[in-house]
Design a protein that fits this description.
154 residues, mainly alpha, 5 helices
Length: 154
């Protein structure tokens, strides 16, 4: 006897649903993209937008292209890319770009470390999540494109 509760049967039906993986991918896109744009991308976009000509830029330059280009690229990928990811537009290339950006942050800026002084756990978690989305795609609950192994299921 289940005591009149509906929790377990409902959970079993949700997991068995053909839409379960698509809902999971939507949640992953929305949570990773939402946090990225809110906590990282928006601030960088505003920093680039309000920058005056000739002003000094204090931003990491792990690729050796200059602080301002590094900031502008990170702002575009973390800000605009995250919004595209949430909407499910070009999920795989956008997620791959975000994963690369987080790999640069993890290895280049944080030294690939997880210690208290390294701060690498956050970029590593973002990198792992974005890599998963780059491999899996956006699912059927996405604007574009609707391709990949998840989208081909009934």
């Amino acid at each position: 006897m289940n005591g009149g509760g509906v929790g377990l049967p409902l959970l079993q039906r949700m997991i068995a649903s053909p839409w379960a993986a698509d809902v999971a991918l939507l949640l992953l896109r929305a949570s990773l993209g939402g946090l990225m744009v809110a906590l990282h991308g928006w601030g960088k976009l505003m920093d680039v937008a309000t920058r005056t000509a000739g002003s000094a830029v204090e931003f990491a330059d792990p690729l050796g292209i200059g602080a301002l280009p590094s900031l502008a690229i990170a702002a575009a990928i973390e800000g605009v890319g995250s919004l595209l990811l949430i909407a499910g537009i070009a999920t795989r290339p956008v997620a791959a770009s975000l994963a690369f950006t987080m790999a640069v942050a993890f290895f280049g800026v944080h030294g690939g470390g997880f210690g208290a002084d390294d701060g690498g756990e956050v970029p590593f978690l973002y990198m792992a999540g974005f890599t998963a989305l780059a491999l899996a795609g956006g699912g059927r609950i996405a604007l574009w494109p609707r391709r990949g192994p998840v989208a081909q299921r009934p």
